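INSTRUCTION: Work out how this chain folds

Fields: amino acid sequence; protein backbone structure tokens

Chain under study, with its fold:
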Amino acid sequence: MPNPQFPIKKSFKGLFVGLVTLDLIYLAESPPQNNQKLVAEDYIVAAGGPVTNASVTFSHLGNNAKVLGVVGSHPMTQLIKSDLANYQVEIIDCYPTTENPPPVSSIIVSKDSGERAVISINAVKNQVNSKDISPDILQDIDIVLIDGHQMALGCAIAQKAKAENIPVVIDGGSWKPGFDKLLPFVDYAICSANFYPPNCHNSQEVFTYLNQIGIPNIAITQGENPIQYLCQSEIKVLDVPKIQPADTLGAGDIFHGAFCHYILQETFTTALEAAAKIAALSCQSFGSRRWMENQETAITD
């Protein structure tokens, strides 16, 4: 049953372009030291990656989500496919015949602080070009989210979306080569505090850089600290809910998925605020999925 705190007003269709991984998530007292063995208290196996987690969130909020990336046919991909099928997320596999193993992330969440340590392989070994994109890939799509891990694919999709007046959102987790070619087609840049374009050293310079490119809506998330965002040429701040985190894994990804849902029906400021509430809710449960089972969890202001 939907939570009345997050009402579902309409079903939308979103395309999420980027990294698909297999996440092995462990709950432990802390990450291990050299030559130390730990026994985890709990663990979860799930599909991961910025746009993948975002797509699950978007689907959970009552929408239709498609992930465009590389999955392949390695036996481990069955774990990815079954997880996404469980959350009604469709996979559009750009390289279905590859037998290479998918990128795998091993994540240790510290029990007391909710902080996480991650070791992973990204999509560098599984890059694809845009030549095989279906001409109707954006048919009936309401919004596109791109994380930059499949840059050539993302650029092609963003350019096509711009021509068809479909809003494009980027997950700016960190600066990646090729972002300069993608940014001119972006409507909403939602960045982390670690996103630094060339010659940018602080948030003010990041806002200036992105605004000069012509991106009208820019926000920088800062974890538990207030969100900075550009509104009518003025940088403003938005407080986020205060919580005791159990696990911060994937909170930014979940924020992006929720933002894609709310921005299609709310103002920029309201969409940021609503997405922050969803992200805060996710931090109160272990792993990137269990928050959806506990959506009645209270958030204190």
Observations:
- The first strand starts at residue 13 and ends at 17.
- Residues 71 and 93 are 6 Å apart (CA to CA).
- The chain has a mean pLDDT of 90.
